[in-house]
Design brief:
alpha/beta, 5-stranded mixed beta sheet, about 50% helix
Length: about 170
């Protein structure tokens, strides 16, 4: 059984989601949000690092998936987001965990089927795919979606690796 931690980094709210793969089926374990908006940036980064470290210690994931930073218009916000992302990555790398990165469009495509889906569509699909009783908070839903995207990608790569080519009537 593989356990995957998904992280939706943010300089004010960092979402996390933990799933376990039972065969090929993702099963919900836990999700939540680290709220750090009221602090100065260095303290926010420390709290993100400590919070993700606690999640790793509690759930012992085998792999981690995190959303890539994309630069929109506000460069200062992108830099803060990158620093929050770095704090989360170091918390996982510190425990020797492999960290995989996915763009927002990759995650939305894997979960909703459209790379430019709305956040509410991601929330709804996460609820449906994991058979949750209610919608998870937006940032936690994104983190669960990132974990499920990673699971889909790994399953796809495993399937490709398991296929053997046939040439001239022989397995290659």
């Amino acid at each position: 059984m593989t356990t995957i931690l998904g992280i939706d980094p943010g300089s004010r709210t960092t979402g996390y989601g933990v799933i376990r793969l039972e065969g090929k089926r993702p099963v919900y374990v836990e999700c939540g949000c680290l709220q750090v908006a009221d602090d100065e940036l260095p303290e926010r980064l420390r709290r993100i690092f400590a919070g993700i470290s606690d999640v790793v210690a509690s759930f012992r994931p085998d792999q981690v998936a995190i959303e890539k930073v994309f630069v929109n218009r506000n460069v200062e916000s992108a830099l803060k987001l990158g620093q929050a992302r770095g704090a989360a990555i170091v918390a996982c790398a510190n425990q020797g965990l492999p960290v995989h990165e996915y763009s927002p469009n990759q995650v939305k495509l894997a979960i909703v089927g459209r790379g430019h889906a709305e956040k509410t569509q991601v929330q709804h699909m996460v609820k449906m795919l994991l058979a949750l009783g209610e919608l998870p908070p937006s940032d936690a839903a994104d983190a669960l979606a990132i974990a499920m995207c990673h699971a889909h990608m790994q399953q796809g790569l495993s399937a490709i690796a398991g296929v053997r080519a046939v040439r001239g009537g022989r397995l290659v």
